[in-house]
Structures are given as structure tokens and as C-alpha cells.
Amino acid sequence: MGKKHRKGEAPAADNKPVEIQKEKSKTREYIESLIIAAIIAFFVRSFFIQAFKIPSSSMEPTLLIGDHLLVNRLSYVVKVPFTDIVIFELDKPDRGDVVVFRYPVDRSKDFIKRVIAKEGDTVEIRDKIIYVNGKKLNDPWGFRSHEPPIPGFLSPKDNLQPLKVPKDSYFVMGDNRDRSLDSRFWGFVKKEDLVGKAFILYFSWDGNSDNPLHYVRWLRIGRIIR
Q1: Residue 73 class from Cβ within 10 Å (0-12 exposed, 13-18 middle, 19+ buried)?
Q2: Which of 46, 75, 160, 204 could form a disulfide with 81 if both were Cys (CB 3.0 to 4.6 A apart)?
Q3: In a 10 Å sphere around its CB, with 0-12 CB exposed, 13-18 middle and 19+ buried, how is residue 210 labelled?
Q4: Of the ranges 45-54, 118-127, 159-168, which one carries the lowest mean pLDDT score?
């Protein structure tokens, strides 16, 4: 026989359904939080900020292998998310800006270089010295080895005939002038290929260090990219 209850006393409630309901509510909250976080990350990455890692030495000494940086995607153009269709232009890169862009030869890759010349400029290289519009470029960023210049008929690395930058295009180079695959070899960067301007290092990792205590380059974290 079932347990008798005193007159006027309600039967004891079964707590199990309540516990299950609470668990479902918590699970739903977690899922909703993840969905909201994913949506926010989608919009931030699509329109505002994107993270990149430096894999090569082409921008040394400005950027080192293992540097992690943030790029402002609203520096120059606004694009349809996950495409290179430009909705409208916000600004244009200045000479000296460090920019991330789609590699023209393989648009699945992103490259980072420094803007050397803009639309309408004429750029020329004579024995490793860069000239823009006939004037020697003030080039505090460039690093060059002491190797003898290579003649222009063998390679455009150290000697490049005058080139005029087309409309809505840019001539870019790596700061490590002798170890960079850039506009000297594959041409200009177009406006629609721009991703954004690099502006800060948020982490730096030196996996080749002999001392594990030096794996993280603490002094580089938070450095503004110039």
C-alpha cells in the first residue's frame, strides 16, 4: 500500500524531473553561449581584427619567425565576408605601412610586406638602393647583406628597371631585402587583395632557442609594428 498522507497535506514532490530540467537548462545555456561567441568571433574576424603568425624571415629584423600579430581589417577596405569583393574603400596604404594581402600567385596564402611605392609612383632599384620617382628612398626599415649586387639581367633582386605602379595597386617589399619574395619578382598588389594593416605583436615564440626560458620573447609582446 502507498504511503498515507495526513489530511490537508500535499504529497511530497518527486525531485528527479526538476533535476533533469535544471540540467537541460544549463546545457542549453552553454550551447547558446557557444553560438553567441561563435557569431561574435565570425563578425570580428570578418570585419575588424584578424590574427596572423610570421613563418619566414622575409620581414626581419622588423618581424621575426614566431611572431604573432594582429591586423586591422578596417584599415583600407571593407569586403564581403570570406571574399575579396570590396564593398567600399576606407583609406589607402601609405608608403611604409606593413600590410597583409592575398599572395597574387596563390590567393589561398596571405603575405606580409611593406609598402614601398603607391599608384602613380615610379620605382627603381640600382645596386640594392631603392629610388621612388627618381629620388633615393629614405629606407630605415631595410636590411641588406654585404653580398655584391646581382646584375639586373640575372635577377631583379638588386637591380630593377623603372616600373610605374598602376592604378589601385602597390609595390611591396620585405624588410629583409636579400631574403624576400616580393613585388620585384611577382609584380604589384591590387587593392582588392589587401587584408589590412599590421599594428601590434600580441605574442612571440622562439622555438629554436637553446634555453627553454627564452622560448617566449617577452620583450616583443605588445610591440607596435612600424
Answers
A1: buried
A2: 46
A3: exposed
A4: 45-54
Q: How far apart are CA 77 and CA 90, in angstroms?
A: 5
Residues marked as catalytic: 58, 113
| pTM of structure | 0.80
* pLDDT at site 145: 87
Q: Give the ranges where 98-216 is alpha helix by DSSP (H).
A: 183-186
Domains of the chain: 44-220 (2.10.109.10)
Label residue 140 left, alpha or beta by phi (over 0 means left) and psi (-120 to 50 means alpha).
alpha
Residue 113 and residue 189: Cα distance in Å, rounded?
Answer: 10
85-137: per-residue pLDDT in tens? 888 899 999 999 999 999 999 989 999 999 999 999 999 999 999 999 999 99
Report the candidate in 147, 144, 141, 122 with the shortest Cα–Cα distance to residue 133.
122
112 strand-pairing partners: 100
